[in-house]
Amino acid sequence: MLVSAKEMLKKAVEGQYAVGQFNINNLEWTKAILLTAQENNSPVILGVSEGAGKYMGGYKTIVGMVNGMIEELNITVPVALHLDHGSYDGALKVIEAGFSSVMFDGSHYSIEENISKTKEIIEIANAKGISVEAEVGSIGGEEDGVVGSGEIADPAECKSIADLGIDMLAAGIGNIHGKYPENWAGLNFDALAAIKDATKDMPLVLHGGTGIPEDMIKKAISLGVAKINVNTECQLAFAKATREYIEAGKDLEGKGFDPRKILAPGFEAIKATVKEKMELFGSVNKA
Ligand code: 13P
């Protein structure tokens, strides 16, 4: 059964580890992440962007697939199905479709509008036991064709949003989606410490988990980050494994044209990436 992310993140803050949010794009991705979570006895959050939602045939399709897998693959670790960077309308749609968690990203609105829209989403989501993530200070890089330059969140604005009753807060601290440029200045730990100080026990979310050095990840967790989002790294691992398989010509030989065989190396590559992250984030055996 899907659960809200509230409890698993509260436990992560208390235990000083982070739960991974791994974005899904198809059935193989979903199955690889769920099986890895179960094998490592780790809680997990499946992230779905609005673009991935459309690609997979709509939110109800995804809810059906994930619930089916949880039951038939005997997944007993806590799993949250979460909308990633949702618009106001997108958030309403996933709540209707049966997601257990939602991010409303109002970071591109004025802080006043971000607050009023976040408040409305909290009310609707909480009535159904669905957890809510809000964002302050946009996260840079490209996601679903939308490019943001990234900014450092203001601690006072973070507190205003945190006090509304959200369950997790994404605050920009110099993190960006996708690959980090050569001249990246790194995470701003002074900003993170100030945000933590202002928001107390609020689980903080680190977006753009791909390519952040391990020591920075560990330091971010020690400063209150309880959820880390990873997307690009699984995509790169999947693409590399699939390309190697096809370039080796294996897909043309024997039964190699079987799509299940073609996608198998990519599936294993996602499993290995997710396991590595769960170990780094400290969520193994925390289910
Ligand atoms: P990456 O693609 O950089 O791993 O970021 C994922 C993310 O933050 C999704 O919201």
**Ligands:** 1,3-dihydroxyacetonephosphate
Q: For the largest beta sheet, what order do the strands appear in spatially?
A: 1-2-3-4-5-8-9-10
Distance between the termini: 14 Å
Based on secondary structure, the structural category is alpha/beta
Please report the first level of CATH classification, the CATH class. Alpha Beta
What characterizes the major β-sheet? 8 strands, parallel, barrel
CATH architecture descriptor name: Alpha-Beta Barrel
Question: What do the pLDDT scores average to?
Answer: 94
Counting structural domains, the number is 1
Number of strands: 10
Radius of gyration: 18 Å
Which helices and strands occur, and which strands form pairs?
Elements: H1 6-15, E1 19-23, H2 27-39, E2 44-49, H3 50-55, H4 59-72, E3 79-86, H5 88-97, E4 101-104, H6 111-126, E5 131-136, E6 141-143, E7 146-148, H7 155-162, E8 168-171, H8 189-199, E9 204-206, H9 214-222, E10 225-230, H10 232-247, H11 259-262, H12 264-281
Parallel strand pairs: 1-2, 1-10, 2-3, 3-4, 4-5, 5-8, 8-9, 9-10
Antiparallel strand pairs: 6-7
Helix pairs in contact: 2-4, 2-12, 5-6, 7-8, 10-12
Bound molecules: 1,3-dihydroxyacetonephosphate.
